[in-house]
Write a structure and sequence with these properties.
By secondary structure, the protein is an alpha/beta fold. The protein has one domain: Zn-dependent exopeptidases (Aminopeptidase), CATH 3.40.630.40. 33% of the residues lie in helices and 18% in strands. The protein has five helices and six strands; from the N terminus they run βαβαββαβαβα. The protein has a six-stranded mixed β-sheet with strand order 2-1-3-6-4-5, sandwiched between helices. α3 links the parallel β4 and β5. The longest helix has 16 residues. The model has no long low-confidence stretch (mean pLDDT 97). Bound molecules: zinc ion.
Amino acid sequence: MLITAPHAQGPGADVFTGEIAWKVAQATGAYALVATVSRRAKLEDGNPADYNREWARNTPFRRRIDELIKRYGVRFIIDVHGMESDPVRPDVDLGTLGGRSAKGKLVSKIVKRLEEAGFDVGFEQEFQGGDILEYHCDGERVQGVQLELSEELRELGEYRAIQAVLVVVNTVLEEV
Ligand SMILES: [Zn+2]
């Protein structure tokens, strides 16, 4: 299990996603990979240092994901992001690239468990997932989901974002 937080670093950070990934990893034994560079910084080729984009596949962050899959047996990726608050947005928007990055049965179970834990869950309401899922998850041998966590869940002192990611980890561990 790997938890990624590619937009953890400001300016322009998905605030607290690095801390969330780190804490859930510590609690569960999952790996965590947290960006230490802002997505507004530039890569050597001039592209933005957004690790969830196709052009970033050859960065150390993305090569490390490959290594964790190939050498450390990672079979599931939870890519953690933060979305700005909006009344029409759910607490958690779950992305699976239209169903390609994870098996439907498992995704349904994740949604059900999150709802049972009291979260308002959207399924690809706005966010389908990015290149981390696209490139590293085939939906069979390596599965993955993107979690967009609302701002309310990530406020200082708020534990619900951590709880949401824990629910996903625990549901996946039952199945994978
Ligand atoms: Zn993000």
